[in-house]
Amino acid sequence: MDILYNIDFDIAAIVISLIAVFYIFSKKSLQKSSNGIFLAIILTGLVSAVADVCSAIANSRPNGESFAIQNLFNYLYLFVHNLLPYLILLYVIYIFNLTHYLKKKHYILITLPLATVYFFLLINTLTQLVFYYDENGIYQHGLLFPLLYTSAALYMLSSMILVIRFRKSFSVQKSAALLFYMIISVIPVIIQAMHPYLLLEIFCQSIGLMGILLSIENKDDIINASTRVFNRYAFLNRVGGALNVDNTTLLVIKLSNIQYYNTTLGAESMSGLLREVARWLDHLDSRLSCYDCDNGHFALLGEDLTEEQSRELKKRIFDRFENPWGHGTFLTTFPVEICQIKTKTVIHTMENLLLILDLPFEELNSCEIDAAEVVSTYQRRILVERLINKALEKKSFQVWYQPIWDKCSGRIHSAEALVRLIDDEFGFISPEEFIPIAEQNGTVIEIGAFVFDEVCRFYQEHVLSLLGIDYVEVNLSVVQCMNQRLVEAFDKVLTRYHLSADRINLEITESAASGNKYTLTESVRALEARGFRFSLDDYGTGYSNISYMFDMPFKIIKLDKSILWSAMDPKTHTGDKNAMILLEHTIRMMKEMHYEILVEGVETVEQKMLLERLGCDYFQGYYFSKPVPGDTFLDFIKVVNA
Ligand code: C2E
Ligand code: MG
Ligand code: MG
Hints:
55% of the residues lie in helices and 15% in strands. The protein is of the alpha/beta class. It folds into three domains: 8-219, Rhopdopsin 7-helix transmembrane proteins (Up-down Bundle); 223-378, 2-Layer Sandwich (Alpha-Beta Plaits); 395-633, TIM Barrel (Alpha-Beta Barrel). It is elongated and about 125 Å long. The site of ligand C2E has 23 residues, from strand 12, helix 17, helix 18 and strand 16. One magnesium ion is lined by residues 537-538, 558, 560, 600.
């Protein structure tokens, strides 16, 4: 009697598995899943489908030509098919990055059910406990056959639990897809238990695996299309799981000023060069994977490298970057910044990591940066940002005034308004520290508006003009100039306090010229038309762009204290001869150009006398007064200007 097994589904499974294998080999990016577990799963599925078909044919013709072949296929099927759930568990462990948590004993434990199944399969010819052939030669399940189901169930259940438990460390959507495909693979096992001749199991499994292949294993979304290594998204996914692990090696490699190269060499050549860099980094060490984290920043991530080996790697990278990279006719070197990161002790949070990854390149020479330092600077920055926001909310910023002495009249004729942040808990925070931060996060616009309002109010309320104060110097950040509504906003304040614009001198720093010159000039023109006057602040600290000075309507040039101090140190009253020549000539040159000269940082009478001799117009510095609160300033001028 022939038994009718339905092998149609198995044949379909073979076709699907073959398509999957072809797909994996045709897509280069898929081979990047270095682990190969997934390929092993697909191949196991293929072999078990073939073995299932062969054993089904052999089993359906009991006492056929060759019992040996029938037996062989049955064993082959059972050995290969039982391997599948085990491989799926390993696969889940791998893609969820759980390998760090597992020790050898865990792997032994994981292998135990499979080993038990294999043991009973190996001795089955003697015991006939798994399967046997009845007196008619028909294949029958033995007493221990349920053991196979138990082992498979254990593996599938563990895999599902892991997927659910760690879904967030991967991607919730992908975890859901994985779970869905697992369920699709499990349901037919139940159907087949009831209808043993309907060989549905492998077919459904292959459909499930195809789903995993197209959704999870499809690496298109995690490969950088241009450099062909893993992309930033892949890095963030992968590194999440590795953050708290001791043996992770993470090297961040940053190439300098990629935007600049992009514009000079062209985007196409640049992407060719970066591809070269990426390829070299990717092949550097088989234990490390290379990730392109955008903007010329790369990461190498791997496990189990000793200190010595990481040092050696860094050296090799530095050495390689000493030499040029080539693409087509282009040959160029890239300065590089390398940072080795101890993820467990330094990074703690993803935010810190992103910071080290994204912070632009600082030095022009290749160098090694210290992750701990970056993180602590960053934490301080976060604190300062918090204090700025708190002060803005509570309106607790203060404006202090530093008197400016006019040589001509011998009186205090103006003052510089300087913002102060004094926190209840952290005390005085220097504007040198918080203004650059406020410029970066944009809060300087609000701070600037507060200062301007406060100065106008103060000037009007105390009728400073009657106390001999012709105007107040207010620092204007270039970021404020980017604000299209600036003139409108200032205008409103002036109207509110019935103040004329020429009572305010806006100070713009020299380095502002290196920013967006067009917007700055436009804003300054509009402000000038409204009646404001301008001073150039910190002259001598940046790269003095003379043409920029001519474009702007500056009335006063404020020489930075560093120029004065190099020429005459406030403590020793000695100085550099060349610095003295520079000071003298700068003052003379500016005077000939009809600018008025103000020197900051005058701390001693000797410095004052020197500057008087050199023909300076205005003096500002501790010799006259430090910046003081408004009330103190009023008391001061009432006495001095009396
Ligand atoms: P700045 O505009 O060049 O201001 C002059 C700085 O030099 C002030 O520092 C002042 O206290 C200091 N200074 C003046 N004379 C002496 C002296 O004789 N010896 C010494 N050692 N220092 C002297 P401060 O107040 O710390 O301000 C630092 C910088 O912060 C300012 O430099 C300015 O760029 C910025 N800043 C201050 N207030 C504001 C503001 O309201 N808006 C903007 N955008 N920036 C501000
Ligand atoms: Mg200033
Ligand atoms: Mg200054």
